[in-house]
Hints:
Blueprint: E1 2-27, E2 34-43, E3 47-53, E4 59-82, E5 88-89, H1 111-121, H2 128-142, E6 144-145, H3 156-159, E7 164-165, H4 167-180, E8 185-192, E9 202-209, E10 213-218, E11 223-224, E12 229-235, E13 244-249, E14 254-266
Parallel strand pairs: 6-7
Antiparallel strand pairs: 1-4, 1-13, 1-14, 2-4, 3-4, 5-10, 8-9, 8-12, 9-10, 10-11
Amino acid sequence: xxxxxxxxxxxxxxxPQARIIQMLRMRPCxxxxxxxxxxxxxxxxxARLRRSExxxxxxxxxxxxEGRIEALELRVTxxxxxxxxxxxxxxxxxxxxxxxxxRETPRTAPGEVLAKFAREAVSGIEDRVERLRRxxxxxxxxxxxxxxxxxxxxxxxxxxxxxxxxxxxxxxxFAAAARCCGVPARYVSGYRQREGSxxxxxAWAEAHxxxxxxxxxxxxxxxxxxxxxxxxxxALDATGAAPISGQRVGxxxxxxxxxxxxxxxGAES
Length: 269
């Protein structure tokens, strides 16, 4: 699939800001089944942009803006060519060993209730891939979908007690649950193209299986990630793979408006 992405983030401040620093994890990397054809980041004020790579292998753009800033609009646009992969992630930057992704974070410490759910979901299943599929299906069936909301730093223990979850919530829970079963797992942020659905940044998870590598699972869809997904960043939890994080120097409040368009331009054979 040839997928076009237009992601606009607009900030308006009640009082002018003296400085804004943001870390953007918004540029996809190339893999065996994902090729970035075109990608650009535009800012509507005087700002410096510096590209680098973080410890997880994600492409990072640092944004620095100074002066009397009353508003800021960030627009990310691009095209990505994707191929069917059966959920297998191959040839992505992998600076860290899979075993590191067994590590818990404050947000992904499972607690006994989630740990019990994970163990019961895969009980009696020997095949490693099938265990992950069962876990993915169980998380899909347990919760109703909730529209995306700003990340408030909620833990998986708190999320698991609710009846409706965002894709971000379910992705974090899948990673925590897989780790309970001894499987390295990580959170993934990116985009998903869906006809007739409102567009928003998406989130899913990847789990590591020896001899196969990393496999993509989307508990919000109850399926593996296919060619309609554009993979952008990975981390141990949602905080580490957040599309935008940073700080501002200045008083007052801010208003945030986000608009995302993800469209299929055409399929490639």
